[in-house]
Amino acid sequence: MKGSDMGILEDISSALQRGNGKDVGKLVEEALAGRREPKEILDNGLIAGMNVIGQKYKDHEIFLPEVLLAAKAMYAGMDILKPLFLSGKMPTLGRVVIGTVQGDIHDIGKNLVCIMLRGAGFEVIDLGKDVAPKKFVDTAVNEGARVIGMSALLTTTMPVMKNVVELLKKDGLQSKIKTIIGGAPVSDEFARHIGADAYGYDSMQAVERIKRFFSEA
Amino acid sequence: MRNVLKISVKDVIPGQKESLALQGISSLKEPSDRIVKLYQGARESFEAVCHPVGVVADITKEDFVRVYRGDGRNEASTPVGEIFEKADRLALFAVTVGHDVHERINELFGQKDFALGSMLDSVASAGVEKAADVVEARFSRYSRKRRSRSEPIVTMRYSPGYCGWHVSGQKKLFEFLKPGDIGITLRESFLMEPLKSVSGVLIQGHAEIHKVEDKYPFCIQCDTHSCRERSLRLDRHVTSRSANEGE
């Protein structure tokens, strides 16, 4: 595992794609010792690697477990880089508030979206599960987040998503804060029905749709 | 009659195929060595933390009408509504693989072991269905003893939240079954805790009563094809019975 100075970012990306966190860690240290900027390592090594993984998953070349192994390797690199940024915070593509809606405590799907969003370079404020509509909106406003992501796995908790959209409407925030929903019982049609801005079929599609929100802004 | 059923851990360990299917990995594709290793790790972890237990209680048709009606939010026409009237015997059931499984999944995610955590979640989901299979099989076995061997008697299970039975039906089901003694509780949103739990009705009767047409509007939107798979099993069951009877 010896990366040339020129190719070290590609080596980081490759190690990440193999899901090898140890190699990612060593290569990130090596790149830093070679005076590579943390932002360059993050964008062109780690995030570049996750983008390849995302595309391979989309093309059905790899499966969810391989994506998650790569995500773990990415975190190994990010843990080294994080303290090196002046603010102590990673530079991000934007801030997203996410949670499982009130009444529901299923969080696997929501956790996967958080992992993928962070892997794509977003800052995620994870409110956890059983989250009340007001908490989604208040957190998004207070933290300056431009997206609220909501997950539900029960038909009985789906209406909570509508409550969040209506709260945003009532407060005149719907154009400033976009909403995306996901979970087994919801669909594109349901998203349109309640006035949500998007539906994510799975974690990767959720990331794509959220990226689109930011590029359209 | 109400029975608490102790279930052996080895009876609920799901196979690789059904666990990987829940990860979106088709059985048509050969999984990589890394994925197989993850499945094996998750299976071992599941074996260590799962505590399967179930409860079954007979219910009369009169009582089941009240349970099934729930808050009156079922679809107008449902398969269970058609089937249960023709049943020989009905029982409510609930089964779980316990709280520790979810705790372990959370721990793994907290340790950034996302792939193993996610795989364990799939193994546990497949595992609780196996536990429900065990409950169904025991109920079925007990009843078969009381019947002529030549009769094609079949037990099938149906759960609130599926096949037009509104999930709010859980409330009445829990009021009757009271599965709190095996650690299963119901939230206001009708969500069971532990998460990896299954509840429903066991409907026992002649194999023919379980055959329903794929005619219901909710079937079109349903991604769960287990009823179709079960129907196929039913066809095989009836066919093999008929063949044996003809010998």
Describe the structure.
The complex is a heterodimer of chains A (217) and B (247). Chain A is an alpha/beta fold. Chain A has two domains: 8-84, Methyltransferase, Methionine Synthase (B12-binding Domains), Chain A, domain 1; 95-216, 3-Layer(aba) Sandwich (Rossmann fold), CATH 3.40.50.280. Chain A is built from nine helices and five strands. In chain A, strand 3, helix 7 and strand 4 form a beta-alpha-beta unit. The model of chain A has no long low-confidence stretch (mean pLDDT 92). In chain B, helix 2 (33-49) packs across helix 6 (114-144), helix 3 (61-69) packs across helix 7 (169-177) and helix 5 runs antiparallel to helix 6 (114-144). In chain B, the strands form two sheets. Chain B has a five-stranded antiparallel β-sheet with strand order 1-2-3-7-4, sandwiched between helices. In chain B, strands 5-6 form a two-stranded antiparallel sheet. Chain B has one domain (2-246): NADH Oxidase (3-Layer(aba) Sandwich). The two termini of chain B are 37 Å apart. Chain B has 247 residues and is an alpha+beta fold. Chain B contains nine helices and seven strands; from the N terminus they run βααβααβααβαβββαα. The A-B interface holds A 19, 63-66, 68-69, 71-72, 75, 102-106, 108, 111-112, 115, 154-157, 184 and B 23-25, 31-32, 34-35, 38, 105, 109, 112-115, 117-119, 121, 161, 167-168, 187-191, 193, 195, 223.
Number of domains as seen in the coordinates of chain B: 1
Number of strands of chain B: 7
Helical percent range of chain A?
55-70%
Q: In CATH, what is the homologous superfamily of the largest domain in chain A?
A: Cobalamin-binding domain
Task: Outline the low-pLDDT stretches of chain A.
Answer: none
Multimeric organization:
heterodimer
Gyration radius over CA of chain B: 19 Å
SSE pattern of chain B: EHHEHHEHHEHEEEHH
Report the mean per-residue pLDDT of chain A as an integer: 92
* Rg of chain A, Å, rounded: 18 Å
Order of H and E elements of chain A: HHHHEHEHEHEHEH
Helix fraction of chain B, binned, reads 40-55%
CATH topology descriptor of the largest domain in chain A: Rossmann fold
CATH topology-level name of chain B? NADH Oxidase
CATH top level of the largest domain in chain A is Alpha Beta
- On the 0-100 scale, what is the average pLDDT of chain B? 88
Biggest contact: A-B, 24 and 29 residues
CATH architecture of chain B: 3-Layer(aba) Sandwich
Low-confidence stretches of chain B are 241-247
Structural class of chain B: alpha+beta
* CATH class categorisation of chain B: Alpha Beta
